[in-house]
């Protein structure tokens, strides 16, 4: 039986597919390439030495997605597919609601129809909103500050409601903190369209000379150096967390949320310094105003994933900085 991976050509999906193949799983990927490129599939084959099935399908196209369910004997779904840019979601909320929510509803209806009731979902630490104090625990009240985050909150609720309605379902809601880094080979990594919104891809593009300098969004937060603190997690550790979550989903019933983070917070300037030290490059920066919607400090209490899933992040900030740079430096134009 195979694992269906929606959005498997994307940044986190591609790293997770490698771990799935390494563990001996059969993999079926669906992706519409709205934020990824076909070349990643060659790289996954090259790194894993294994084959998998790919369907170019937009998951909001239920008829097309149904053909995939008809063709394969599926055991579980790992659901990454969705749009993820916070600022774009504020400008184009309906585009985000349509893609992320309609896509998930079509997917879950087909999971019911074809009796594939095991699901791992890509949620986000963004669901902790602005009113909780770090470290965040899974039982804290949830809220959001932008349409992207709201889609994550709604989908968590869809899944909670579906599991309540049908106890033969099993699901894990994985709340990722800040994924960075790349496969240690430097062959796959994050390849943002346009100017990056997130810190690490911005830093690597400054390092490679595509961007002039980093703007640090505020140095007046209530943090040790005044800049924003986040829980950066190596994408390969995150990918391994999906294997553990999948195993748990297959062995149990019900729904659980898990924080996938390291439990350690680093400030923006910590990351800049760590990147410079790990890679022997200089990152010019300027302090600018806060970015609207940002919190001062956000990091995980990762105890639950450790206890229940037997998962913990193993790679540190140096590994994350080295691997992010290795990917960018050896692929200055990404997969293009
Ligand atoms: P990504 O954009 O690299 O990957 C998402 C993939 O989904 C892309 O390949 C895109 O082409 C595909 N996709 C989007 N809409 C689709 C649709 N309708 N049909 C088929 N394919 C579609 O993003 P990522 O960083 O790998 O994130 C994966 C998931 O994790 C997303 O759901 C994202 O919201 C979530 N997440 C990401 C982060 C992060 O910082 N990267 C943090 C928390 C949660
Ligand atoms: C990290 C820190 C910025 C860029 C976002 C989403 C979240 C999740 C992960 C989901 C903050 C600072 C950033 C820059 C800066 N995504 N920064 N200059 O905002 O924690 O989380 O990505 O898919 O939902 O909100 O991540 O990398 O944007 O920012 O100073 O050019 O770096 O202010 O303190 P964030 P980020």
TrEMBL record:
Residues 4-323 form the NAD(P)-binding domain. The lineage of its organism: Bacteria, Bacillati, Bacillota, Bacilli, Lactobacillales. It comes from Marinilactibacillus psychrotolerans. This is UDP-glucose 4-epimerase. The gene is galE. GO terms for molecular function: UDP-glucose 4-epimerase activity. Its cofactor is NAD(+). Pathway: Carbohydrate metabolism; galactose metabolism. Transmembrane segments: none annotated. It catalyses: UDP-alpha-D-glucose = UDP-alpha-D-galactose. Belongs to the NAD(P)-dependent epimerase/dehydratase family. Keywords: Carbohydrate metabolism, Isomerase, NAD. Gene3D superfamilies: NAD(P)-binding Rossmann-like Domain, UDP-galactose 4-epimerase, domain 1. Homodimer. Its EC number is 5.1.3.2.
């Amino acid at each position: 039986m195979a694992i269906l991976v929606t959005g498997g050509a994307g940044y986190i999906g591609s790293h997770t597919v490698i771990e799935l193949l390494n563990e001996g799983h059969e993999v079926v990927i669906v992706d519409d390439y709205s934020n990824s490129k076909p070349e990643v599939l060659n790289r996954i084959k090259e790194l894993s030495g294994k084959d998998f099935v790919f369907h170019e399908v937009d998951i909001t196209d239920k008829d097309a997605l149904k053909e995939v369910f008809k063709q394969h004997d599926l055991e579980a779904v790992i659901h990454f597919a969705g749009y993820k840019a916070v600022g774009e979601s504020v400008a184009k909320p309906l585009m985000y609601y349509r893609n992320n929510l309609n896509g998930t509803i079509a997917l879950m209806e087909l999971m019911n129809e074809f009796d594939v009731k095991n699901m791992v979902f890509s949620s986000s630490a963004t669901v902790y909103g602005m009113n909780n104090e770090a470290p965040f625990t899974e039982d804290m009240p949830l809220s959001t500050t932008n349409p992207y985050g709201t889609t994550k909150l709604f989908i968590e609720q869809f899944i909670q409601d579906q599991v309540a309605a049908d106890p033969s379902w099993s699901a894990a809601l994985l709340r990722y903190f800040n994924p960075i880094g790349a496969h240690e080979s430097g062959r796959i990594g994050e390849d943002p369209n346009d100017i990056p919104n997130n810190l690490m891809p911005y830093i690597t593009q400054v390092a490679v000379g595509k961007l002039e300098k980093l703007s640090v969004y505020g140095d007046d937060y209530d943090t040790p150096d005044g800049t924003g603190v986040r829980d950066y997690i190596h994408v390969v550790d995150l990918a391994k967390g999906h294997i553990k979550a999948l195993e748990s989903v297959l062995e149990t019933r019900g729904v659980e949320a898990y924080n996938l983070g390291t439990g350690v917070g680093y400030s923006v300037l910590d990351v800049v310094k760590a990147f410079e030290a790990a890679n022997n490059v200089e990152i010019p920066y300027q302090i600018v105003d806060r970015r609207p919607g940002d919190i001062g400090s956000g990091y995980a209490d990762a105890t639950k994933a450790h206890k229940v899933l037997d998962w913990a992040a193993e790679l540190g900030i140096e590994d994350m900085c080295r691997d992010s740079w290795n990917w960018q430096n050896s692929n200055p134009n990404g997969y293009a």
